[in-house]
Please model this.
Amino acid sequence: MAYIKYKELTKYFNFNERLELEGLPKYVTDYVDSDEKIIGAYKTSRDKSIFTNKRMILFDVTPFTKRKKIHIIPYHSISSATIEYDIGTASILLSLNSGYQLRLNFVGMHAEDKTELRLLFSRMMKDQK
Model:
C-alpha cells in the first residue's frame, strides 16, 4: 500500500477585494490568451488572481523578497472541488490531479459577493471538462 502525502500548493491566499475587469494591470492580462474570457478577478494586499473560462491564474508575491510566482491552473486539472460558506467568508478548496491541494479564501464577503462567487465556482466546474 502506497502512502501519498498531499501538500498544499500555497496556503495564504485570502482574497479581500473583487477587481474590476476593465482596470486590470497589463502584467496580469498578458497571461490571458486571445481565446479566453476573464470571468472574475480578486486580490489580497499583495497577490492577485484572475479566473478565465479555461483556467485560473494566481500571482503569488513573497512579502520580504518581492519574488513573484505565477500559478496557472487549468480547470481540467482539478479532480475535486468544494465551496464553503461562513459568516462573512467563503472558501474554495481544490484537489488537483497532481496531488496538490489549494485553498482560496475570500474574506469580507457580503451576500451579493457570495452569489458572484457561487456563479464563478459553478463556471469553473462546468469548464473543468
